[in-house]
Amino acid sequence: MSFMLEVDPQKTGEAVDRYLKHDFERYLRLSGKHRTDISSPSMNGMPSGSPGNAQEAKIIEGTYAGQVVNAIVATIQNCSDFDYRKPYKQILVDYYIRGLQNFKIAQKIGYSDRQFDFKKRMAQCEFADRFEYWKIVYHVQDQPCLQIMQRAKNCAKFAD
């Protein structure tokens, strides 16, 4: 008997939410960046200041944090935003970067609260999927996998 797994949207959304609210904020601080710095896709992730022997560990930590920030920004920039049915990039930017409240984003993109909650969850799931690729590109594979899996509801159909 085989078990088919699929992403659990609720738990994945919660994992992405925790990561982008807490870990992302910490990496921004460690890299010397601010949310206002990441509106430009040309961000290079390099820490500011001059390196010194006494501060080598801090420089390395800041450089790594910059790479994590770049991976997060690239992931958000790569999320779907090509039509009104998938405004995922806009939702992620407005909520996690600009700090807008859910109801304001819902009004901005023309969705009811219920529709918005679903779209936000789908945006979080897309972020979790795409983050796996961008972690490799930016050499931060030790960052957590945000995809939380569950047994597929209809897996009996596919069992051996």
Automatic annotation (TrEMBL):
InterPro entries: ArpU-like. NCBIfam families: phage_arpU (TIGR01637). This is Transcriptional regulator. It comes from Lactobacillus nasalidis. The lineage of its organism: Bacteria, Bacillati, Bacillota, Bacilli, Lactobacillales.
